[in-house]
Amino acid sequence: MGKIRVAIIGVGNCSSSLVQGVQYYQKAKEGEVIPGIMHTRLGGYHINDIEFSFGIDIDKNKVGKDLAEAIYTKPNNTFRFCNVPKLGVPVVRGMTHDGLGYYLSQIIKKAPGPTADIVGLLKQTRTDVVINFLPVGSEEATKWYVEQVLTAGCAFINCIPVFIASQKYWQKRFIEKNLPVLGDDIKSQVGATILHRVLVDLFQIRGVKLERTSQLNVGGNTDFLNMLERSRLQSKKISKTQAVTSLLQYDIGDENIYIGPSDYVAWLKDRKWAHMRLEGRTFGDVPLNIELKLEVWDSPNSAGVVIDAIRCAKLALDRKLSGAIIEPSSYFFKSPPAQYPDHVCREKTEQYIKKYGIKAKKRR
C-alpha cells in the first residue's frame, strides 16, 4: 500500500488533534481496538499510511513554521496527548477572504506576503486529500479553496458547515473532474449532535412523541469565539438542526427546536459543554422529559473520525469514484448528501469499505 498525502486548510485545534492522533497511533497493531477509529487498517490503509504534505494558515505566528510546531502555537488550546516530532512539513500562507471574522481578528494577525500557490503546491507535493478546517462562516474562502482542489486534482473533505458535498452544483463539479468529495460538517465520536440524534431516535423507537427540544453549547476555543459573531452562525445552526430533525417522521415546528452554539467561556479552552433537553409525551399523554450535560474536549473528539474519512477518501480516489461519496459522508458528517439513522450509516460505510478496500494478498 502507498501513503496518503494530506494537506490541511486551517492549522487550528482540529488539525492539532489530527496530527497528534496520527503520530500517537502510528505503531498500532493490526486488529487493535482504538477508541474512535473504525479499523486500525481500513480498506488496506493503516493509520501510519497518512502523511502530511503541508498546512495552510494566515496567522503570522503559524505561517513559516513546521506543522509539528504550529499545531501547539496559540491560540490553539486543545488537549496535548502526544509530542509530535518535527515533520519537515511547512505551514504556508493561505487566502483570507471571509475566513477571519471580527472576533478572531482581535487575536490573530495576518502573515505578511502573498497567498501561496496552492494549486502548484498540491501538485508538487503529490497531495491526495485536502481537509477543510477553516473557521465557521468561511463561505467564500471555502469555495475558493474548492476551486484550487478541483484544479489540482485532489479529493476534498469538508469538515465545516459550508455546504459543498451536499449541494448538487458542487457534486457536479467534482464529477466533471472525476474527483471525490466527503462532507459536510464533521460529526464527532460522541459529541452533542450524535448524542442528540440517539436520544431522538430512542424517542421514536419507544413511541414517545417529541414535542420540544434544545441543545445549548458553550466552549472556550477559537471556534466558539468566532461564533460570537452571530452572522457567521447560520450554516452551523442549519447543519446541527437538520442532523437531528432528519430523523423525525413528523414536524414539531421551528419554534419548538433550538440547536446551536450559545456562548464563549475562555477558561474552558477546547472543552465544550453541551446542555440538552427533550420534552415528550408517553402513553396516556403523560409528560416525559430528559435533561443532560455532555462535557468533551472538542477537537480530539472528531480527530479519529477524520482519520477514517481520510482513508475512505483515498479508497474513492483509488477506485476512481467521483462526486459526493454517500456512504462515509452519511456516517462521518452532520449534513451529508443523504441522511439515514446512524446504525444504517455505519452499516453502509462498512459495506463501502468492504467493497472498495484493497484486499490483502493471501500467503502461500
Key features?
7-stranded parallel β-sheet; 32% helix; 364 residues; 4-stranded mixed β-sheet; single chain; alpha/beta
List the helices and strands and how they pair.
Blueprint: E1 4-9, H1 13-24, E2 41-42, E3 45-46, E4 50-57, H2 67-70, E5 91-93, H3 118-124, E6 129-132, H4 139-152, E7 155-158, H5 168-176, E8 180-182, H6 192-205, E9 209-219, H7 222-226, H8 234-245, E10 257-264, E11 271-281, E12 287-297, H9 300-318, E13 323-324, H10 326-332, H11 342-356
Parallel strand pairs: 1-4, 1-6, 4-5, 6-7, 7-8, 8-13, 9-10
Antiparallel strand pairs: 2-3, 9-11, 11-12
Helix pairs in contact: 1-9, 3-4, 6-8, 10-11
Tell me the Rg in angstroms: 20 Å
Strands side by side in the biggest sheet: 5-4-1-6-7-8-13
Could you estimate the helical fraction of the residues in percent? 25-40%
Number of helices: 11
Estimate what percentage of residues fall within beta strands.
Answer: 15-25%
Total strands: the figure is 13
Helix and strand sequence: EHEEEHEHEHEHEHEHHEEEHEHH
Low-confidence region ranges: none
In oligomeric terms, what are we looking at? single chain
* Gross geometry: globular
Largest sheet, in brief, is: 7 strands, parallel
Structural class: alpha/beta
Cα(first) to Cα(last) distance is 19 Å
Give the integer mean of the pLDDT values: 95
